[in-house]
Amino acid sequence: MSDASAVRKDSSGGKQPEKRTGPVTFYRQVVAELRKVVYPTREQLVTYFFVVLAFVLVMIALVSLLDLGLGKLAFEIFTGADDI
Fold it and tell me: From CA 70, how far away is CA 13, in angstroms rounded?
């Protein structure tokens, strides 16, 4: 990451470093940003939870099937089909 965003050009064309924000100002800015956040309702949260849970279960099934299939394929390639 570059520090180019923290450098400001002055009127003479030279570059001068930007002043750092103090801890109190930083805290006030954080609180101001958190006030802008729109939190989901309980109903939305439950809906999102079940959507994420269903997606994760589908992905678990997909990865498990791929693992099983590729494992059997590797076993078949390296040991022969009669050992399965």
Answer: 61
pLDDT of residue 17: 72
- 27: pLDDT strictly greater than 70: yes
Q: Quote the strand ranges of the chain, DSSP E.
A: 7-9, 15-17
Q: Is this prediction's pTM over 0.70?
A: no
Instruction: Identify whether the C-beta of residue 15 lies closer than 8 Å to the C-beta of residue 8.
Output: yes
Question: Which residue is listed with tokens 């997909």?
Answer: 62
Whole-angstrom distance, CA of residue 51 vs CA of residue 24: 40
Biggest alpha carbon–alpha carbon distance for the chain: 81
